[in-house]
Amino acid sequence: MSINNVRLAQVPIQTYNTAAPEVQTKEPAEIKGDYQLTMISPLLAQMLLAQSKKITPASVSNVQGVTEAQKRVSGYKNELRDMLTHNKANIIAVILRTMNAQDKDGNELIQGDEISGNFINAVDRLDEIKDLGFNTQHVLPIHPPGKTHAMGTAGSLYAPKDFLTLDPELVDENPPEEVKKRVAELYEQKTGKKLEKMDKNDPEVAFAQCKYYIDECHKRGIKVMLDLPSCASVDFARLHPELMAIGPDGKEKVPQGWQDIRMLKSFVDEQNRILNKPLVDMLKKYVDMCVDLGFDGIRADVGRARPVEFWNVIINYSRAKDPQFAWLAETYTHEDASPQLNMPYDRPQELLEVGFDSYYGQYHNYSDWLTADVLFDYVKENIDMNNKIGEKCGPKSLIGSFATHDDQSPMLYGGAPWVMFTTILQSMLPQVNPYIVDGIQTGDFYLYPYEHALVRDSETDNHECTVHTGRLDIFNKSRKPGGNSPEIAQVVKTAFALRDNRYNELNPNSNVKLSMTNAQDVITKGSFIKLPTNNPEIIAFARHKDGKTLLFVGNRNINFKVGGKIEIPGLKPEQKFANLMPSYGAESKFQNDKQGSLVVEMGAGRACVFEIDDKDIEKLSKPENVLQQKYL
Amino acid sequence: MTYISPILSSTLNKKNNTNKASENHYNKIYEELTRHANDVKPNAPKARLIKGGPVHAVQNTIKDTKNFFKAVKDGKLSDNNLGRINDLGMKFGALLIASFLASKAKTKTEAVMQFIGGATFFASMSLWPKLFINLPARIVHGFDIGQRYVSAQGDEKDFFLDNQFVPWDAQPKEELRKIGKRTGIDYDSPNGEEKIKEKMRKTALQNRTLGMATAGFATPLMTAMVGNAVEPKVRDIIIERVYKKAKDIITPKKFYEQDGGGSIREIGKSGLEDYLSGAKADVRNVDGIENLFKEYSDKNLDKNFYEKLCNMLQVNTPVDFVKERNGELAERTYQMFKDLDDYAPIESFRADNLADVIRSIQEQTAVVDEQSLKDALKKLNINVDIADYIDSANKAVSSKTVTVDVDGIVNDFANSADKTIGGLKKILKTHGLDGVQIGTVEKGIRMDNAPFFEVIKKYNESVLPEIRGRFKSYMDLFNSVMGSKTESKTTKEYLMELDKLMKRFNFSYDDLKEMTNSGVESSEAKLRLVKYFEKFADKTKSLTLEEYKKELGNFLSIPLDKDLLDTMEHLVDPKNIQSITENAKSTGDNAFFKLLNTAFIGENGNRKSGLIGALDRFKQEKILSLDAIKAKALICSNFERRVESLDFKRALEETGLILSEAKKAGMTPEEIALNSSIPYEDWIKYARSVIYDGSIAKDACNANIGDKTLYETLKGIIYNPKAFEVEDVILNGAKEGREYTNFDIKGVVERLKNLNQSVKEGKNDYSRSLSFSKAVSERATAIFNNKSWKRIFVPMTVALIAVTLLAQPFFGNIKKEFPEENKNGGTK
């Protein structure tokens, strides 16, 4: 038996948190060369071997080291990969340079002595985020933006001038004393030098402040993912021509519609699929940087922009450093869902197989899915894919990408009711980690009064405040995200509390009590049961596990009240229906017809969740209506 | 316990070692990973290329239709399929529009062309890019820019549909290599594949852009040109079909083999004619029939009934119950009893019955004789208590006493040849009975014959609708047969003759048009015509008249019969020709061509005077057979129109009127004809002129033929038994004038005279075909328009095609090499 067998791709993946399984014992093998045999604990070996699954050479296996971040925050450990794959991450996407910006004059643009968002003041919002139930942050890129051919007055977040440093504009040069002290410690740990001055031009200061921010997140139980841009700025391209993709016309490749960025060259020889080593090297350093800073994972912008061979190296390398290092791919389910010149197809399956834990999918198109069946078909498509590849690479998930920073604010589609509807929906869907862009939780329309205004002071070569209408501003230093619909936050909070088994704790005085003790399991692991209705606009499904059942009923129609009948197999005549979610919009009525159906009349965009006593719902439903995500 | 790699073990052992050591460790892992980066491969593509073709297109349309209904039913449909429904909508929409336009079309050709036009439009939309964009691109660049593929989601799309997303991995590498060879890009050169792809993408984009830019012109142009080319063929096909159909329908054999066993013939000939002639008058076993009806008075008529009835009526036709219910027997019975109103013979009725009935009337109007009345009622099967009635009747007796000569009436009727109710009524009148009294007698007689009327009633309820339905189908056929002026066989033959003439003189239709315009002084065509006639005149100088006529026929390349030659004799007399040519030499073109115009085209307002007019008449003669068919069809359709409007009686009356009139007048048709002061030839000529020349006055032709006399004339032709044998019989008969025996000749001739007057007054606008000169004129205009149209659009089309072809070499150009191949990096 050669050492290759020790790589043991056959060993089933086990989650980090599960109890130690029986370890498969292998016969000792003849080891050649410098290899030697070492005994390690079964638990560790099992985990490491599983992690090393993707790595071809047997000589390379993952190890679990204690990361620097773990050392910095007592009690913290990275579980983001497990959280993502097991549908337990509640994600908020934030832009640090605006996250807690202080717009004094109300023009929504941060100018003059107004303070933009930075690593330090962002910490002030962490308690609020935690309170809402978010346990994961997707931090949009924090690298210094390129200034040439730039979009907006601050430069696009996705046009980094340098991947391996942080935007000095995120540095707070005058933080409070206790923060300063902690930052200085972090600075010294890394550089071995005393921090003389909180100078934003010293890259290590930015690193130290970033660590401080991440540590504060970790202290609150919030995991942090950093956004890895798929392309680079024009400035970067000029400095690193060897990394840039050149088109057959001899010019640098530009992703259509984004004149401020240039594409990176993944292959040096695409026909033979030979990777561009300098680029891989740079991304390897990027991973080093992320792990060092304490990030728990990476969100890969336009995941399809890099080939599987590339991710095979980078993801596995990151896992060697931190087995729980999570990877989220921005990629859609259908290969031509987001056509873009010079970008390859979307094919999530191969990205998931190569190591990504979760992907975007296409819930952002939900506003076009006018009937329940379209949603159910999509849910099925993804669960089928998971079950197909799960044996090989474990569970995979989606994020509830009902609105991302690339999409227009859902407030523009259906206002607060629509946001609340999709929030409750995504919190109840299987194989989904709820995802909300900062500001949406209070109803931000992302409409900026300075859109396309020309301003004198610009940090880039562009004096126009570029804004994509209705979308979160990623080009300028804008005001803190947020709107005037605090009721959405209440819905977010309640929905996430239900997912996190904190429902009763959150609502101690409520009349509606949850009797099941592990709603989280029902939602994240339970089966998904499509319930027949006589109205295609009524979304009705049950989540069921171990005899416990949660029922989701929603009116997809955002304009009108709808009525209908929902068949609930096994529904007891005496079953009462008490909505676990906050009430909003028009009153909705529910009546048990005592013949196995729930008759509903729902206000526009209303979504409700009920706990019902229906142990046999799964058995009594038609098999084709029951979906179960496997390998969880 | 397990075994693990040295690196791992090293890591574990060095858990607390320095960062540097740790870095080295991870670097080793990293290097190892990069060495094995290619151990994973992208997943095989789900998308696949497909081959198109008409079958595939049909399959797609079926699939789209299914998807449409599925979407309607379930509300489920992918975006792509939703988009495709748009195509489906266009196709169905085009079909609907074509249907609507077709319903408004004046000719069958026009109607059919609506559909052909729609289909051609879609075909053009598809063919234009295929033939003039994709094909040249394929020839020049070596690949199909119209390639289709099925995406990973199962949607069928154009491979180059989205310039921003081309599913390259569905394209086999070998194919790319081939295309590379064709386009001069070495696949194995650095970035060779990418260059090939870029060239393809660019070529496709440019070609698709060109396709879109030109489609707006090209599609309608192609549609129009294809439509123009196809239309004459379509018209020919339609004309031939219509002609064949007409012939089939009118051909006696087929006509009478229609279901129902030749109703028209039976009704028109055997039925009414035989009945009226009295040949079968004695078949009515009245008592037997009466008893039969009594037997069946309270039950449904069954097979036995019909069989018994057939026997009684001496109908020898084998009785098929099912068939007969709706067929011959029903018609025969109807035929026999239908005219009881006036013509029903009552000679079989017992004289004492009649006497009783009449007596009862007399008694009613004078002193009521109770016993006589009782007897009469008994005979009439009326069982009522008459005591009260007698009382009141006696009270109502007027002082006026009428004496009715019952015996006289009975005797008169017995001796009368006319043993019909009509005849009886006349006798009653001569015996001084007033209207009321005559009506009473008639009623009495009818009461005695009630079961017969019952038969008629039943017949009307069950059989008539069937007959009506059958006639409806005939009528539809006739209507479809008739076509219209522009697509009749006549017009077609005119045009064929015209084409021959044009060819003979090497005239274009423009020439012809120009020649008809006297304002134009000279033209190439005229000069050619001059030469022809000069040549002809030279050649025929010394010929006899007969030789000349023969030569003229050859000269014109048209077989000339006697009539035509007679007509033309004057116009193209050698002397005239000579004088014409001499005149031309001395007086110049203008005068000469006026003469030529007169000769060929005819003088203004007198189209028939020229050669073309003569040809027109010649054609009329030539196509007599066709017109005979048309005439028959007209009459048949009119007959059926009567039936259609439930005026069955009138239809039959009209059919048999001539026979009836002849009989009434106590003359045979032949006798009538012989006694007429107008020669047969004249009225035949008139008849032919209105039938065949289409010169009947329009206002006399409401709905087919509104003129009753003419209609009857034609009807006579149709229902003449001998005329059914073959078409030629009619024609010969028409010429000989002997076969038409059943005419009210005087009336017909008078009527025709009037019509002839209408013709002279220029009211002759009724025709089922275009007149020859009109056809020439219209043809000339059409050709001229076509030519003008083509003059503009053909060059435009050619230019478009040229652009698409010439553009190809300029498409898909990319820089041959990257400016500088990147030599850095790589893990190789």
Task: Explain this structure.
The two termini of chain A are 32 Å apart. Chain A is an alpha/beta fold. The longest helix of chain A is centred in the middle third of the chain and has 22 residues, at 372-393. Chain A has helices at residues 4-7, 42-51, 68-72, 80-85, 96-99, 126-132, 177-191, 203-219, 234-239, 277-293, 308-321, 348-354, 372-393, 411-428, 486-499, 503-506, 519-525, 617-620; strands at 91-94, 136-139, 223-228, 231-233, 261-263, 267-269, 274-275, 297-300, 326-329, 358-359, 397-400, 432-437, 527-530, 538-545, 548-555, 562-567, 589-592, 597-602, 607-612, 626-627. Chain A is built from 18 helices and 20 strands. Mean pLDDT of chain A is 88; it is low at 1-64. Chain B has 828 residues and is mainly alpha-helical. Helices cover 68% and strands 1% of the residues of chain B. Chain B has 37 helices and 3 strands. Chain B has helices at residues 6-13, 19-35, 54-74, 79-104, 108-141, 173-183, 192-250, 252-256, 263-277, 286-295, 303-313, 321-326, 328-337, 351-365, 370-379, 387-396, 406-415, 421-430, 435-448, 450-462, 464-482, 489-504, 509-516, 524-540, 545-556, 562-571, 574-587, 589-601, 611-622, 624-644, 648-664, 669-675, 680-691, 708-719, 727-736, 745-760, 772-807; strands spanning 48-50, 148-150, 156-158. Chain B has a 3-stranded antiparallel beta sheet, with no helix packed on it. In chain B, helix 9 (263-277) runs parallel beside helix 13 (328-337) and helix 30 packs across helix 35 (727-736). The longest helix of chain B has 59 residues, at 192-250. The N terminus and C terminus of chain B are likely disordered. The chains are: A alpha/beta (632), B mainly alpha (828). At the A-B interface, helix 2, strand 7, helix 10, helix 11 and helix 12 of A face helix 1, helix 2 and helix 7 of B.
